[in-house]
Amino acid sequence: MIVAEEGTLSAQLALRVMDELSFQLPLGFAFVLGAGPVVASASTGEDGFHASVYTEVLKLRLPRSLFKPVVEQDGKPVADPNPDHFVDIPLPLGVSIDGDFNIDIEWPGESPGELSLPRCMVGDSGVIISAENILLRLSSNQELPDTPARSPRTGPPRSPGRSSG
User: Does residue 92 lie in a domain region?
Assistant: First the structure.
C-alpha cells in the first residue's frame, strides 16, 4: 500500500514466508529463518526518512535431546514422539533506520527482549517446564527491569554486600 498526502509519502508491504531454513549452532541449537509474517514500511516527510522491517520469522530452536515438545495423550502430557518436532523460541523483532542512518532494534511488547519458552519436557525426565516474559539482556547498557524477580521460597533478591541476620 502506498499513501501520498500533503508533504508525506508512505509505503507498506506485508509478506508471508512459507518455508524455513535452519542454521545449526553448537550443542544442537539452531537458528531458524522462515514460516511467518514480514512487514516492511517506509515514509518520508517533514520529519525526514524512516524505514522499518518487522518479522516473526526468526526462532531459536532448542536441541531435542534436552527439550522435547509436549502433547496430550490420554489426557496426560507426554513428550511428542515425532522426531521432526522441536521446541522453538520465537524471536519477534524489528529493525528501523532513519535518514541519518541510525539503526535501532525494536522488540515488540512493553519491554525489550521479552521471550517465552513453550511448554516442553526436559529430556526424558518427565519434568515439564515453561516460562513467560523472559528478559533478553544483550548489553550492560540495557536497563534492568523496574521490579526485581521474586522467588516463592526466598522472597525478593538481596543487594550485594548485604546480609540478613
Answer: yes
Phi-psi category of 66—alpha, beta or left, where left has phi over 0 and alpha has psi -120 to 50? Answer: alpha
Whole-model pTM: value is 0.63
Contact 66, 89 (CB under 8 A): no
- Is 148 among the domain residues? no
| One-letter-per-residue 3-state SS of 34-89 | EEEEEEEEEEEECCEEEEEEEECCEEEECCCCCEEEEEEECCEEEECCCCCCCCEE
Report the amino acid identity of residue 147: T
| Cα–Cα distance for residue pair 112/142, rounded to 1 Å | 9
Which range of residues forms the domain containing residue 37? 2-135
Q: Specify the DSSP class assigned to residue 136.
A: -
Residue 129 within a domain: yes
Q: What is the pLDDT tens value at each position of the chain, 165 positions in all?
A: 788 788 889 999 998 888 888 899 999 999 888 778 888 999 998 888 989 888 878 888 999 999 999 999 999 999 999 999 999 988 877 888 888 888 887 766 545 556 889 999 999 999 999 998 777 665 666 666 666 555 454 455 554 554 444
Residue 149: inside a domain: no
Phi, psi of 108 (to 5 degrees): -75, 165
